[in-house]
């Protein structure tokens, strides 16, 4: 018979003194003395990383744990925000992503990519989160039903199958709830706009406001925004005979948007210092697609020119430092969202050999990603000289002579002009997600159990992109002739498009609402993903023991079938790339993968209570997976050894595999954008960034080369730092493989009760990683290392040599690159002490918890060879390295549990410094930032305070503030679309202080 006393002992050794609310990230590592199996049976607990139930929470692979109470203390309403607070986790898609948002919430363990992190609910995998994102969407998980989250380091494919390369995030949900619980929370951000960090941003915005107040303005000194509201209802009832339980839940969440204009450090799009700003001040940069416009020939058809509008219908010289469009203010810093959740969990014991169970989960999530207005992104290469929209002065300046005006000849003219009249581009995303699990489990005979389950999940996407321009209509609206003195679209005259309305951008106030109604189009995408899984597993105690052990050999084995399907349908505007502000076409596709697998696992105790060992054991797992075109083998072996009760050593090795998924194999090829500080063949760009002379390999007549005039002319530079690449799937991808090695020690000293600490080394090496090579890597390998195969992937605009205007691009489709490797050390510590032990009677107790990670390396191998094809991003950010990878991160928490039903918690979050990654072609080093203002991000420290008060037995109040000191984030002009608002809000607290207030009532 199972004893609750033993169970409580187990849990209390895992969490601080048995109080789950105290431990922010408790390692699942407790050592419970092994007991002979003929004594009272201990509660069995399923731990992430094994199908074998265990009599303690010891694992040979490190598992870090956070609890449902941590959600209350951290004040989060999005579960990804809680997981991403762990040093092992890095945010991928979340609510702070605007440009390039999929609308999902994902997590990337060890910063190896969200595709390599397997997400489970109660040990069962989640499906694709979106037709546009292969990672699981954490928006589907109701935060108030989370009992705990377990994070397993490294490969776990032998236990869970494909995708568990970097690790596993397992959400353990609450069960067997009885009664009615209502939980509600309200929160908001407050920020004082007084940035005084590197770059003098406020002074630069004020300077630019003197000449362009419409685009440059400092926000209010004190702002409050980003309000969040959530309410969750949980109802549970037990069966009258006590053999079952049904729990149902419903929830609603709403978050308000935050615009970048409302924070001083994001109110302008930063650029490198200029002569006007001064060497110690960031310049406010922007986009060459400006307002009231840029009119240029990019050096084609004659001498290069660039103009903007003067008074009346005239041109004046365009100066980028003054006229570039400030695209930052209207971008969302936090996307608005609205979510509804609904579901039920149920189980019923039919008899002693069968318990049926089910989980049904539904969520409806909507969000809007807003970025700067669309417009004419230099989409049209020419204009007719007799256009009635051009004044004589304008026609003359762009090279039209009298004869050309009379004949209506065409002349090169690219128009870059923002649609400020129509407002920001809005990507409206809606996901309806369904997940169902049903099965039966029970005891076959004493000591042997079975679990058979089927699950089905579906995600449906409905996407509408608003306020974009049609490239086709734009070309017609700028091709205008005079009909009886009235400017008229040529397409109206010849009957091609009788609805066309001229787009008069050649004078201020010339754009009419009729023109906007004609030019602006919605773009539509629908799609769905489905996952079907059938699993049958048997676990059992063989009864066979080693002579030196009291515990017996336990095994698990079974089979699984899984099918993943993904389909996407886009309208003609998406398919053809007709959206001017899209960067390229979005082409629908569909495909599926299926796999049949068998698996097995064992745990063999080697010693219990021996003179040479308090306990020792080994465990292993194996899985064979058969896909349509290939098969894979994954396995794991681990061991633990405790010479005495106080300390235990553990080690594990695992081989994991990730098969290419539908998105990676079947995505249609099309243009997209990548971030880069400057074109490597641009002499002005290299000079501004201290990058030396233009490589000789840039100059020539090959498709990847430019002319001397193009190199020096300044038109190769994208003012917004965005360039074209061609993306796409690859059906010939091979599976990627990883090897994970972990070893460490767990210490629970008997002389210091309620204290434990674990220190674990991890090393994850991934070979044949499924990834793009990286457009910037391809450019570096071509121009700096003479790699011919890389040069062949570069195709510049034949007219102007550009990679950002027209169809110039870098071909960078999915492939199997060399791989990745990361290693480091995780530290977890917990301590709980009664204040009476320190001589202070009657004041409760204190709890301390700590989790930290030292990152030793984060290496990328492009697999292309050369001196710079391998680089290490540990301690670096931006360019090849993306989100900052500080070498040290930690979370520390202290909680005072008072005797007055009031608990007060203080949390210290630390992110180490990071340096901008500038790749050296000579040796692959990244510490080449020179004198850049943003070369270093200083270490950031955030302090949070929270309290929970049990007002009465059935009512608990909570309140808190995160980022008490209202720290400003570190800034860089190389953030691009990897971050947002000149920083990385996925990592740093970029929005200010966050206040929250909540109540939980039980009835």
Radius of gyration: 30 Å
Low-confidence stretches: 1-44
Molecular shape: globular
Secondary structure tally: strands: 53
* Helical stretch tally: 17
Helix content: 10-25%
Structural class by helix and strand composition: mainly beta
Largest sheet: 22 strands, antiparallel, barrel
- The separation of the N and C termini measures 32 Å
Our estimate of the beta-strand percent is 35-45%
Q: Mean pLDDT, as a whole number?
A: 91
Topology overview:
Elements: H1 4-14, E1 26-27, E2 63-67, H2 68-74, H3 79-83, E3 89-91, E4 107-109, E5 117-121, E6 124-125, E7 146-153, H4 157-160, E8 167-173, E9 179-192, H5 201-209, E10 222-238, E11 244-255, E12 258-259, E13 270-271, E14 283-284, E15 294-296, E16 306-309, E17 315-317, H6 320-323, E18 332-334, E19 337-351, E20 354-373, E21 375-377, E22 382-384, H7 392-397, H8 402-407, E23 410-412, E24 414-418, E25 424-445, E26 448-469, H9 471-478, E27 480-483, E28 486-489, H10 490-493, H11 513-519, E29 520-545, E30 552-570, H12 572-575, E31 589-610, E32 613-626, E33 631-644, E34 647-658, H13 662-666, E35 670-675, H14 683-688, H15 708-713, E36 722-727, E37 736-747, E38 755-767, E39 770-771, H16 775-785, H17 788-791, E40 794-795, E41 809-811, E42 815-816, E43 819-834, E44 845-861, E45 870-872, E46 876-877, E47 888-897, E48 902-911, E49 914-916, E50 936-937, E51 940-952, E52 955-962, E53 993-1002
Parallel strand pairs: 5-8, 36-41, 46-49
Antiparallel strand pairs: 1-2, 2-7, 3-4, 5-6, 7-8, 9-10, 9-53, 10-11, 11-19, 12-18, 13-14, 15-16, 15-24, 16-17, 19-20, 20-25, 21-24, 22-23, 25-26, 26-29, 27-28, 29-30, 30-31, 31-32, 32-33, 33-34, 34-37, 35-36, 37-38, 38-43, 39-42, 40-41, 43-44, 44-45, 44-47, 47-48, 48-51, 49-50, 51-52, 52-53
């Amino acid at each position: 018979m199972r004893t609750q006393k033993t169970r409580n002992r187990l849990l209390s050794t895992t969490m601080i003194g048995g109080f789950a609310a105290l431990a922010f990230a408790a390692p699942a590592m407790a050592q419970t003395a092994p007991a002979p199996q003929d004594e009272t049976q201990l509660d069995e607990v399923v731990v992430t990383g094994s199908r074998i139930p265990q009599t303690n929470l010891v694992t040979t692979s490190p598992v870090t744990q956070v609890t449902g109470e941590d959600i209350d203390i951290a004040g989060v309403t999005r579960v990804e925000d809680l997981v991403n607070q762990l040093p092992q986790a890095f945010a991928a898609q979340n609510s702070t992503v605007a440009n390039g948002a999929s609308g999902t919430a994902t997590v990337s363990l060890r910063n190896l990519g969200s595709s390599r992190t397997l997400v489970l609910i109660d040990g069962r995998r989640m499906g694709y989160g979106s037709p546009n994102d292969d990672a699981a969407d954490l928006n589907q998980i109701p935060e108030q039903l989370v009992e705990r989250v377990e994070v397993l380091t490294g490969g776990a494919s032998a236990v869970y199958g494909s995708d568990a390369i970097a690790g596993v995030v397992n959400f353990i949900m609450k069960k067997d709830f009885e009664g009615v619980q209502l939980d509600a929370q309200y929160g908001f951000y407050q920020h004082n706009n007084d940035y005084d960090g590197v770059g003098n941003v406020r002074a630069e915005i004020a300077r630019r406001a003197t000449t362009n107040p419409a685009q440059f303005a400092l926000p209010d000194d004190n702002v409050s925004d980003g309000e969040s509201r959530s309410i969750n209802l949980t109802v549970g009832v037990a069966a009258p005979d006590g053999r079952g339980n049904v729990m149902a839940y419903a929830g609603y969440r709403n978050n308000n948007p935050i615009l970048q204009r409302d924070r001083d450090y994001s109110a302008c799009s930063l650029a490198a210092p200029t002569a006007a700003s001064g060497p110690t001040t960031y310049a406010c940069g922007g986009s060459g697609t400006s307002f009231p416009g840029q009119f240029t020939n990019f050096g084609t058809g004659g001498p290069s020119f660039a103009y903007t509008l003067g008074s009346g219908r005239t041109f004046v010289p365009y100066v980028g430092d003054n006229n570039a469009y400030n695209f930052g203010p209207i971008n969302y810093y936090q996307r608005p969202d609205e979510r509804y959740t609904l579901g039920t969990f149920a189980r019923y014991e039919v008899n002693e050999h069968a318990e049926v169970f089910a989980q049904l989960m539904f969520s409806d999530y909507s969000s809007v990603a807003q970025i700067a207005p669309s417009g004419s992104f230099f989409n049209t290469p020419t204009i007719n000289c007799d256009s009635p929209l051009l004044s004589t002065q304008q026609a003359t300046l762009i090279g039209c002579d009298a004869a050309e005006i009379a004949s209506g000849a065409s002349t090169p003219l690219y128009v870059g002009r923002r649609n400020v009249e129509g407002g920001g581009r809005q990507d409206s995303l809606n996901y309806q997600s369904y997940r169902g699990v049903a099965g039966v489990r029970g005891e076959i005979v004493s000591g042997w159990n079975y679990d058979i389950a089927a699950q089905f999940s579906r995600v449906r996407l409905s996407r509408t992109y608003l306020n974009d321009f049609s490239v086709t209509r734009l070309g017609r609206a700028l091709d205008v002739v005079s009909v009886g003195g009235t400017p008229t679209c040529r397409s109206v005259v010849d009957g091609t498009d009788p609805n066309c309305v001229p787009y008069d951008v050649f004078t201020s106030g010339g754009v009419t609402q009729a023109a906007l109604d004609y030019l602006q189009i919605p773009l539509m995408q629908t799609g769905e993903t489905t996952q079907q899984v059938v699993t049958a597993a048997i676990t059992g105690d063989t009864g066979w023991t080693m002579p030196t052990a009291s515990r017996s050999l336990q095994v698990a084995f079974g089979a699984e079938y899984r099918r993943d399907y993904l389909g996407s349908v886009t309208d003609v505007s998406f398919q053809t790339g007709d959206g001017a502000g899209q960067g390229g076409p979005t082409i629908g596709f569909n495909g599926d993968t299926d796999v049949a697998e068998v698996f097995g696992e064992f745990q063999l105790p080697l010693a219990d209570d021996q003179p040479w060992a308090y306990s020792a054991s080994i465990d292993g797992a194996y899985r064979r997976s058969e896909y349509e075109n290939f098969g894979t083998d994954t396995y794991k072996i681990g061991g633990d050894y405790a010479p005495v009760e106080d300390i235990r050593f553990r080690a594990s090795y695992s081989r994991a595999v990730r098969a290419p998924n539908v998105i990676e194999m079947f995505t249609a090829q099309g243009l997209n954008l990548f971030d880069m500080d400057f074109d490597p063949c641009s002499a002005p760009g290299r000079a501004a960034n201290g990058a030396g002379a233009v490589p000789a390999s840039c100059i020539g007549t090959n498709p990847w080369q430019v002319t001397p005039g193009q190199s020096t002319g300044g038109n190769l530079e994208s003012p917004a730092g965005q360039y074209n690449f061609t993306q796409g799937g690859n059906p010939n991808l091979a599976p990627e493989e990883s090897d994970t090695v972990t070893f460490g020690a767990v210490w629970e000293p008997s002389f210091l009760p309620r204290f434990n600490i674990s220190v674990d080394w991890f090393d994850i090496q991934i070979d044949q990683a499924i990834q793009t090579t990286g457009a910037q890597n391809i450019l570096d390998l071509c121009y700096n290392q003479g790699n011919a195969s890389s040069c062949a992937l570069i195709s510049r605009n034949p007219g102007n040599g550009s990679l950002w205007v027209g169809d110039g691009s870098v071909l960078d489709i999915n492939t199997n690159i060399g791989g990745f490797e990361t290693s480091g050390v995780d530290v977890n510590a917990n301590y709980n002490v009664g204040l009476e032990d320190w001589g202070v009677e009657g004041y409760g107790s204190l709890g301390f918890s700590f989790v930290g990670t030292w990152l030793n390396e984060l290496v990328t191998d492009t697999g292309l060879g050369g001196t710079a094809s391998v680089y290490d991003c540990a301690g670096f950010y931006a360019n090849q390295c993306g989100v900052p990878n500080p070498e040290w991160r930690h979370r520390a928490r202290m909680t005072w549990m008072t005797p007055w039903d009031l608990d007060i918690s203080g949390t210290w979050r630390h992110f180490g410094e990071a340096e901008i990654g500038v790749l050296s072609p000579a040796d692959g080093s990244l510490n080449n930032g020179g004198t850049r203002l943003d070369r270093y991000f200083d270490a950031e420290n955030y302090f949070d305070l929270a309290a929970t008060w049990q007002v009465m037995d059935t009512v608990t109040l909570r309140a808190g503030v995160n980022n008490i000191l209202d720290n400003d984030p570190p800034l860089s002009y190389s953030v691009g679309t990897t971050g947002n608002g000149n920083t990385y809000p996925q990592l740093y607290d970029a929005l200010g202080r966050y206040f929250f207030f909540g109540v939980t009532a039980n009835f």
